[in-house]
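Fold Annotation — chain and its backbone
Next Lines — sequence and tokenised fold

***
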Amino acid sequence: MSDTAPTHARLGFPQATRQEGATPNGSPGPASPLGGVAQRCSGIKRCPAPAANLLRTTDLAIWIMLSTCCRVGELSQARWEDVDLEQAAWRIPAGNRKNAKDHTVYLSDFAKSQCQELRALTGDSKWSLPSRDGERHICLKSITKQMKDRMRDQPLSNRTKATGALLLSGGPWTPHDLRRTGATMMGGLGVMGEVIDERDHDN
């Protein structure tokens, strides 16, 4: 992606942020660094690019990655047993994390709504994003491949014809760019730099 334009402007997504330090129900607590920061994505459930003809599960995955700043691999391997929708909390086990440490994501109302819809679609499986046979999680490269196919000039054999549908003026982008976008949006919303840095937990 081009570094010359604001990331959130190039992606054109609404301002969805992960609520670090939030209360278990996903709302900023009295001592939270996010106190006073409005959640601007409530009720939005539209595809980021309808012409891309993405699977609805992939569409929801993109919103969840953007609104939680999680890694694509963390979401691809997520099990529903680790997602507590009542408490709006998602536990990411150490084995799924880059730094090999357990981590809990407290979901904003927007992120929770995307997880709820995903649960309605895939809840028969133990995986949030199951493989076709439902016995495993999707391939760790599946979401990236779906996105990349929609940024090509020409379609590959037996793949989507929606080429170019997700290509931006700044060039191709990846799921990891959504983490950068989330950080940019958090800064624009007035979130403390220490909180933004803490989202990685990889240092």
Q: What stands out?
A: The first helix runs from residue 7 to 11. The chain has seven helices and three strands. Helices lie at 7-11, 56-68, 72-76, 109-122, 142-149, 175-188, 193-198. The domain at 7-29+37-188 is CATH 1.10.443.10 (hpI Integrase; Chain A).
